[in-house]
Design the sequence.
């Protein structure tokens, strides 16, 4: 199969789904003439014209407002918020409007929006361009958070998200845009809400997402080779609501769990995963669940600090050894 | 401006309806039938009725927290609006929204959001949808002098200005945001003038003169329908009661309240009808009585309607995904 | 000792601390002339004048901007955001500015602000006036979240928060404002970051905050009386960073834990507490940690729905029995 | 306006410093010495130098993301600014902030926040602090044409207008926000005119004429010092490079770039000096050479300085509370 980048996979998803469904339109800062800060919306303006590909002013709340309002009218907006850190500027729209509209109005309206945004550390861009933000939205019933780790998933999940009738926050880890993988040329959708076993294993369940899936896979290979530890790596793909069944099924077999997430430890998605596993698989656990996270501090500028603060493969390996040796 | 006789009679009937509706809500609130707190529009009937005279089928309206009257003007049955405020399953949102979240999508009422200012950007989305689909629909957004303080006011008007969005900004200036005088919150006296920053015309009219309101909003709506973009129409009026029902409103002088009550929009319209010999005192009394009957029937309906049950609680959090109850 | 309400305890804290420290000033919507939507800032304007008690426009981002900027200059602002739900409108300021300033600028500046806000359900005010918001801020290093449950704590913690050099989100549960308790007349500060054992017990550790402390105490009394179960009730008081030592010390004794929090279950503070307890007290646990939370849905309008969705004392009792019977 | 000879010579020296600083940052960025992405102000030197001529001791300034030059004008040593951009411990924020977060509190530079628009409201806080303390300080806030789109622009100006805050809004209009033309993002050509909505005077000047800039900002600063409130000064200029160093900027016509380069502010000032016979070519060359020496020394200093180490990572998250490292 053909190999393309994560970014091109997303771009292809937009091209193909917009061609298929004329309710879909794209808006955001610099998405039209420039094709997006990361190039994900490249070529859409030429193909679909200014009605369906809109450069907005630097107004995040208005971008979400347009998305919500248009969605209420039956369109399917795909809004780009350039960096996830800027979701702070339209937090109200997402939390109080998008997420609640369907419930608040007794199911009489839907809010099928996708908010794409670049998340994660590693870009040397410091405090306001490096955060992992999913935890800010974890406690907001009604929102769905999707986060692919491979080009294949990126394309299929973006299409799946656009077709989903719920408001979806779609996280694109900025260090993955340039990674490559096999992606079918035809249009396909992957289901929202399903995790995937990216690598089967018997001793330890590693649950990860986005860039941390790749750290986890690398560690799993190494530990398999060097220490005869067999790790199963689960890629959540949908962070909220997450796929409890797949996780619990794996934990029932391994009894040992390592959770890997790039956000600061306190209050990250890992906390919810750990609490759920405890609640539902207490007796299966052979060791305390280990959480691998960034330190509880902002993402600093100096590379030595950034690299130290976020989870490194060696942190994952250490956690795996800890659950095995417990 | 003078509207035709039939229209003025219709305005009068509607203003009486709104007035009696609000008084009834207050009465039943005191009797314990209305959960939560309510914001009454007594005194603002001419603004609500006059502005909504230009609302046509296919248009959108975003009422605000003090907009029971606007909701009625959309055509939602009085019974359904009252039942909603009472929190009954027969309400237009099945008792799920209440006073601050009354929507009727089928009739173009996209509902309020109790975060002041939030809907200002939703309005852009409704307008963009009608632009993309070339439906000619106009979006009416109601908001108060206080809400002008929010950042979304700017993001909305800036976008509306640059995209020439078909929006009528109905700025209901009743002089206060809770206890804060409009003149203490904004550096201009006539807030419609703020349109100057956005190349959007602004017009300020006597919000208690239903004919003046109808004319100004009508012109703005026509401009929008012609594709010439948005207008701010500021309606100067006053709320007779406190901010919410029960607020003693001791932050404002008795004298001011008295003077504004003198300028009662219903009284003024009654006088016009009599002066122009368009109605006799008896005919007016007949209108009042007919409204009264409608109100009392609605009360009976709302009182008799069932309340939601616990199992309604987890419906509609997501489209197509269940949430567990207790 | 004298008995006063929670609201008056807060009011007294402000009066006394402002008299002691002239760097302290208060700002927010309707805090000056009206004395606050809940009356917490009553009388301050008369006593301290308009330089130190400021009514702002309806501009949450500007309120936080003023607080941050003034704090950078050495003042100690106490900002009121009327309802916690409106923190969505100044989320960027809190998350990206207040929380990070000290770190981002290498300790050269401090941001000693207190953001007071009314949180929690029970007010029949639906979606945008009823949320529990602490989880939105859990994953934001640099922020501190304080949440008293009694008038005594309210006064002491507010003073402690004002004197603390960190940005503090100070949550006041709106259903507690009217509750009474003993409060010393003199000025005192309680330490930030310390939980308190509100009721000692031997069998089960209940960890709660705000209104849930009262639910927990009631249940503890009842179960003690009727079922001979002895519950220890810990009141977190500071939610983030929480007092791990006090929790772990209790869990080491009881081995059974019930966590009670009013926010929706997924991703609430209870998740972090559960994960921490698992990590640090795995071997002491005799039963899976039980989480008592609101259901994973918004806070609806109809009273039957609201009452069902948020945790009730019977839900706490059921969870206690579950850990005892495990 | 004509400034005295000594001042124009000083302006020239400073503009050369800023120009050479930016070119040097770019050069060393390409060589791999500068982490992350940087926004260069080449072409905007007259705006930065001319505006900061009115900055006095005790004043505050909030630079933006394209403001290395502004940071230098505060008086922070070139060495410390460059070392900060290189991410070194000798930087003014110990390498913790980088290009987008350069502060120097002791000299009144309160630092940038890389969320566009955030500092617009911080500015209000600085201004309120100087009002409360009656220091007479002026706050200078730099922001671009794009950032005018943000809601904070409005909340800030509305508050500044109604509270008569001593702020100079330095609106650097370089025609673009990344790829988006100012004229596609806002409905007015001269953005200073937006002051009309806030009763705040706005003035638009040639941002490449250092004397005109100095005069306009000087007048605005004097107004603020006299207690007459805020002014918007719009400086029309152009950035020669792309949005960030490396951006090919293919979204703008070659011709436009060429025309603006003709209007180089350094060249214009050199011409003035020569035409007025205030300096000879040799004297100008001597200035250039002196600046060059300063720059090269700063480069040596920055290159030779140490980088932060891992143990620096967890310092200063909180004041007085430790955060655990790995
Ligand atoms: C973002 C936000 N801030 C504050 C409030 C609380 N609040 C509700 S109504 C109101 C005043 C609104 O004033 P105005 O817009 O003039 O409308 P009016 O009540 O006068 O009709 C305030 C401050 C809110 N609901 N949302
Ligand atoms: C809230 C927010 N939205 C978007 C961005 C991304 N961004 C950084 S600079 C910029 C353009 C700013 O344009 P302008 O204000 O004109 O400044 P200029 O870059 O031209 O100097 C954008 C969109 C951001 N940093 N913050
Ligand atoms: Mg008002
Ligand atoms: Mg610009």
Sequence:
């Amino acid at each position: 199969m053909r190999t393309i980048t994560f970014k091109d996979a997303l771009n292809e998803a937009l091209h193909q789904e917009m061609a298929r469904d004329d309710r879909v339109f794209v808006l955001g800062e610099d998405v039209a003439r420039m094709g997006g800060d990361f190039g994900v919306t490249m070529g859409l303006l030429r193909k679909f014209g200014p009605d369906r590909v809109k450069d907005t002013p630097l107004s995040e709340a208005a971008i979400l407002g347009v998305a919500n309002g248009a969605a209420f009218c039956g369109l399917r907006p795909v809004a780009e918020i350039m960096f996830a850190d800027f979701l702070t500027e339209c937090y109200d729209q997402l939390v109080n409007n998008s997420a609640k509209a369907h419930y608040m109005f007794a199911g009489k309206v839907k809010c099928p929006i996708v908010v794409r945004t670049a998340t994660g550390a590693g870009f040397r861009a410091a405090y306001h361009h490096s955060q992992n933000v999913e935890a800010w939205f974890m406690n907001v019933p009604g929102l769905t958070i999707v986060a692919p780790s491979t080009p294949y998933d990126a394309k299929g999940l973006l299409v799946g998200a656009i077709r989903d009738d719920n408001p979806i926050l779609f996280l694109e880890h900025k260090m993955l845009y340039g990674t490559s993988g096999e992606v079918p040329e035809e249009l396909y959708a992957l289901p929202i809400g399903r995790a995937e076993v990216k690598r089967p294993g018997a001793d330890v369940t590693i649950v990860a997402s986005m860039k941390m899936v790749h750290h986890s896979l690398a560690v799993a290979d190494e530990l398999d080779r060097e220490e005869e530890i067999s790790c199963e790596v689960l890629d959540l793909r949908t962070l909220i609501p997450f796929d409890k069944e797949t996780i619990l099924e794996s934990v029932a077999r391994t009894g040992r769990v390592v959770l890997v997430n790039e956000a600061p430890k306190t209050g990250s998605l890992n906390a919810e995963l750990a609490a759920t596993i405890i609640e539902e698989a207490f007796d299966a656990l052979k060791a305390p669940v280990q959480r691998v996270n960034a330190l509880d501090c902002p993402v600093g500028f100096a590379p030595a600090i950034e690299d130290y603060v976020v989870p490194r493969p060696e942190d994952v390996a250490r956690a795996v050894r800890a659950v095995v040796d417990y | 401006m003078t509207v035709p006789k039939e229209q003025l009679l219709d305005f009068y009937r509607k203003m009486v309806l709104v007035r009696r509706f609000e008084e009834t809500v207050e009465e039943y609130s005191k009797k314990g039938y209305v959960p939560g707190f309510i914001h009454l529009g007594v005194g603002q009937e001419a603004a609500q009725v006059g502005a909504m005279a230009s609302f046509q089928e296919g248009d959108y309206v975003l009422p605000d927290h003090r907009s029971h009257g606007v909701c009625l003007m959309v055509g939602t049955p009085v019974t359904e609006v009252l039942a909603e405020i009472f929190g009954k399953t027969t309400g237009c949102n099945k008792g799920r929204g209440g006073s601050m979240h009354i929507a009727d999508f089928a009739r173009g009422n996209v509902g309020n959001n109790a975060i002041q200012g939030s809907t200002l950007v939703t309005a852009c989305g409704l307008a963009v949808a009608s632009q993309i689909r070339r439906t000619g629909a106009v979006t009416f957004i109601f908001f108060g002098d206080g809400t002008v303080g929010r950042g979304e006011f700017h993001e909305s008007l800036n976008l509306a200005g640059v995209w020439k969005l078909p929006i009528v900004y109905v700025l209901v200036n009743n002089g206060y945001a809770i206890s804060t005088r409009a003149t203490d919150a904004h550096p201009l006296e006539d807030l419609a003038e703020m349109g100057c920053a956005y190349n959007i015309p602004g017009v300020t009219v006597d919000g208690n003169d239903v004919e003046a309101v109808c004319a100004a909003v009508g012109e703005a709506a026509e401009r929008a329908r012609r594709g010439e973009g948005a207008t701010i129409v500021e309606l100067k009026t006053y709320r007779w009661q406190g901010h919410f029902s029960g607020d003693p409103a001791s932050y404002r002088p008795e004298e001011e309240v008295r003077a504004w009550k003198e300028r009662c929009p219903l009284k003024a319209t009654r006088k016009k009808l009599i002066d122009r010999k368009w109605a006799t005192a008896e005919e007016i009394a007949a209108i009042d009585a007919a409204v009264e009957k409608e109100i009392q029937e609605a009360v009976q309906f709302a009182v008799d309607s069932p309340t939601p049950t616990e199992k309604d609680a987890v419906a509609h959090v997501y489209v197509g995904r269940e949430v567990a109850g207790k």
Summary: The two ends of chain C are 43 Å apart (CA to CA). Chain C is about 35% helix and 20% strand. The first helix of chain C runs from residue 6 to 20.
